[in-house]
Every structure is written in structure tokens, then in C-alpha cells.
Amino acid sequence: MAQTNPAPSGSATNQVVASNATRQGELPLDRVSLVGIMGKPMEKKALFRMTRGDILTVQKGDKTQFGTITEITDAGVVIMRNTGNSVFVPPIPLG
After folding, report:
1. pLDDT, tens digit, 9 for 90 and up, residues 27-36
2. Could you tell me if 77 and 37 are in contact, meaning their C-beta atoms sit under 8 angstroms apart?
3. Is 76 within 8 Å of 69 (Cβ atoms)?
4. What are the two backbone dihedrals, phi and then psi, of residue 18, each rounded to the nearest 5 degrees?
5. Looking at residue 19, what is its pLDDT?
6. DSSP states of 23-77 as a string?
7. Per the CB 3.0–4.6 Å rule, which of 2, 66, 86, 90 could disulfide with 62?
8. What is the pLDDT of residue 26?
9. Cβ contacts of 44 within 8 Å, gap of 6 or more
10. d(CA 61, CA 63)
């Protein structure tokens, strides 16, 4: 099952992260965005930023509000929807 976590908060921030996190207009805040893919090749997980700012962590087979996760690769995430497949491509790596 997909796991939703509140947006993290803390005081120690890496300089590269700090400068990239404050760029204007990098992520559309009014829609769901794929922000990262992590894990070993057969155990990939994807991180989506939801419209409220929380982070949704998913893996293959998870059912989410926007469909079922059918594939996660370094190239992107495939989600099966009632209307067909949608592919979410991760943002260009920064730093």
C-alpha cells in the first residue's frame, strides 16, 4: 500500500539542497509531481509530491488515488489508469 508522509522539516540542510529547494517555478505546486526514484533495480520506489505538499512513497503493485503502479525504472513510473497508461518522468537531476 502506498505510504504518505508529511513534508519533512529540520534544521540541518546541505548547501546544494538548500539552493535547489528555493528555486522558483521548478515544480508545479497545483498537481502531483514525481520527485524521485530510489532503490535497487528489482526493489525500486518512487516519491511523488502531492498537491498538499505531502510525499507519497510507492512501489510496484501499489494502488493509489491516481491508479495502480505497474512499473518503476530509472526512466520513470508507469501507472495503469481506467483510461490507459500514464508515464511520469522524473525531473532533471539538479546539482
Report:
1. 677 888 888 8
2. yes
3. no
4. -60, -45
5. 72
6. -TTSS-TTS-EEEEEES-TTS-EEEEE-TTS-EEEEETT-EETTEEEEEEETTEE
7. 2
8. 67
9. 37, 38, 59, 60, 72, 73
10. 6
- Structural element, H or E, at residue 87: strand 84-88
- Grid coordinates in use for 35? 520527485
Phi-psi region of 21 (alpha: psi -120 to 50; beta: other; left: phi over 0): alpha
In this structure, what DSSP letter does residue 20 have?
Answer: H
Domains and CATH numbers, the chain: 1-6+29-95 (2.30.30.830)
Classify residue 11 by its DSSP letter. S
pLDDT digits (tens, 9 = 90+) for 44-91: 999 998 989 899 999 999 999 889 999 999 888 999 987 888 877 776
Cell numbers at residue 14, please?
A: 546541505
